[in-house]
């Protein structure tokens, strides 16, 4: 590849939409750890039992249930806001205000004194974050043609990873020096990054492809058949058919029912192990004697850097091996990372070097697997139903892992950390088997319209 072609390829990153996705990625990544692993560290220091911390991971089920309100975000305009900002930006702004409010209220609440309020506020932040994801994913796919999607995805991923460092290492460092109240209050202020970005950027009009036209004909046929219905009931039923039924029929008609079911099964199990392990990571580090500062440096900074390295490796692997083989490699590396954590748990006095080895392998695997997974999902969504169909995938892939994560504390109590990490390594087997199947039997899903 010539230097001139490299320069032409790099020009896409000068696009304002690409720069906007960098900040929107930061906005999407910020709340995730604050209701997951960072919150588990706060709860552990507040004296909350491991079993209860495990149950708190079910707050993350909100991300898996977003499918149920994604049609509302896809189709329903917000009074005043939609006229001012457009459909996607209006929903993003509303969600970002909910995130900022929830984090600020969490900052002034002590989980040791009022655990129920902490749980309710965590649900508010997670619900708002999931709603933002619905609108943001739709905006990301709709705002530029397919040849720019790679640059948009790269900018989004970079912003997301930066936010993970801030919400992980940043929040832990502030908490170590100044307490959890100031830590979460700072995170609430940083939610303003997304709000400002939404106010400054533009929104594109979306198109509709041939598959979507075929499905939307169902709405027109219904309206013809129901002319005798009351006008309000007829309008509501037509909206429900277009918002709920058509997106799912479109996905299954483009792929066929058997292939679509296999796609959904694969999506559901691919990251199951990651969620099941993640909720116990910070309690494990604390129980092994590492300080918040050490955890912040190794897990939240060094670990994210290793994830970024995995992303870079994945780009080369996808080009050389294809998506299916890269999916397999990513999960295999993660399984090895879990085995390294089991080894770390068996050491009587582990050092930072030992922690660094385990984190390196695990996070490089996460970077490889996550990048390949996004590439796998990228062709499955019809731009006419972006929010609803992408929410289907985004809701499905965390669900099995989130359900299992709720029992993580009890498994650790019963088996100990060493066997717990063997258990999470075993959870990679379904993803490994299905990835191997995809290598031999490519799905070849239809391209999105």
Automatic annotation (TrEMBL):
GO MF term list: transmembrane transporter activity
Domain Major facilitator superfamily (MFS) profile: 17-443
PROSITE patterns for this protein: MFS (PS50850)
TM helices/strands, residue ranges: 21-44, 50-69, 90-108, 158-175, 182-201, 236-253, 260-281, 301-320, 327-345, 357-378, 390-408, 420-439
Signal peptide: none
GO CC terms in record: membrane
Pfam families: MFS_1 (PF07690)
Cell location: Membrane
Keywords from the UniProt entry: Membrane, Transmembrane, Transmembrane helix, Transport
Topology relative to the membrane: Multi-pass membrane protein
InterPro entries: AmpG_permease/AT-1 (IPR004752), MFS (IPR011701), MFS_dom (IPR020846), MFS_trans_sf (IPR036259)
Entry-linked PANTHER family: MAJOR FACILITATOR SUPERFAMILY DOMAIN-CONTAINING PROTEIN 3, SOLUTE CARRIER FAMILY 33 ACETYL-COA TRANSPORTER -RELATED
UniProt protein name: MFS transporter, PAT family, beta-lactamase induction signal transducer AmpG
């Amino acid at each position: 590849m010539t230097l001139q072609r490299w320069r032409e390829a790099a020009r896409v990153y000068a696009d304002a939409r690409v720069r906007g996705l960098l900040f929107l990625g930061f906005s999407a990544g910020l709340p995730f750890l604050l209701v997951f692993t960072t919150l588990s560290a706060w709860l552990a220091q507040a004296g909350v039992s491991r079993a209860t911390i495990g149950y708190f991971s079910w707050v993350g089920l909100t991300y898996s249930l977003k499918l149920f309100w994604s049609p509302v975000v896809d189709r329903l305009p917000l009074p005043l806001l939609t006229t001012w900002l457009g459909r996607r930006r209006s929903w993003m702004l509303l969600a970002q205000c909910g995130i900022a409010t929830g984090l600020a209220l969490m900052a002034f609440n002590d989980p040791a004194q009022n655990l129920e309020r902490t749980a309710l506020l965590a649900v508010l932040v997670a619900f708002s974050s999931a709603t933002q994801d619905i609108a943001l994913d739709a905006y990301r796919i709709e705002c530029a043609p397919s040849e720019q999607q790679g640059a948009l995805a790269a900018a989004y991923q970079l912003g997301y990873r930066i936010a993970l460092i801030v919400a992980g290492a940043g929040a832990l460092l502030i908490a170590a020096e100044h307490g959890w109240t100031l830590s979460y209050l700072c995170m609430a202020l940083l939610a303003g990054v997304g709000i400002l970005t939404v106010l400054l950027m533009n929104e594109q009009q979306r198109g509709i492809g041939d598959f979507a036209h075929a499905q939307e004909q169902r709405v027109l046929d219904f309206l013809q058949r129901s002319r005798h219905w009351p006008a309000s009931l007829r309008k509501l039923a037509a909206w429900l058919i277009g918002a709920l039924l058509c997106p799912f029929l479109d996905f299954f008609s483009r792929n066929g029912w058997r292939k679509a079911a296999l796609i959904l099964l694969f999506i559901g199990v691919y990251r199951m192990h990651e969620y099941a392990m993640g909720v116990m990571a910070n309690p494990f580090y604390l129980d092994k004697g590492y300080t918040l500062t050490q955890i912040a440096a190794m897990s939240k900074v060094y670990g994210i850097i290793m994830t970024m390295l995995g992303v870079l490796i994945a780009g080369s692997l996808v080009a050389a091996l294809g998506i299916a083989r890269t999916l397999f490699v990513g999960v295999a590396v993660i399984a090895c990372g879990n085995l390294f954590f089991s080894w770390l748990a068996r050491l009587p006095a582990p050092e930072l070097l030992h922690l660094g080895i385990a984190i390196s392998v695990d996070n490089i695997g996460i970077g490889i697997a996550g990048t390949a997974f996004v590439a796998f999902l990228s062709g499955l969504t019809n731009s006419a139903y972006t929010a609803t169909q992408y929410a289907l995938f985004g809701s499905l892939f965390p669900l099995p892992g989130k359900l299992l994560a709720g029992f993580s504390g009890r498994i650790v109590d019963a088996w100990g950390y060493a066997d717990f990490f063997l258990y999470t390594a075993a959870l990679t087997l379904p993803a490994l088997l299905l990835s191997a199947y995809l290598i031999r039997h490519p799905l070849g899903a239809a391209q999105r319209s």
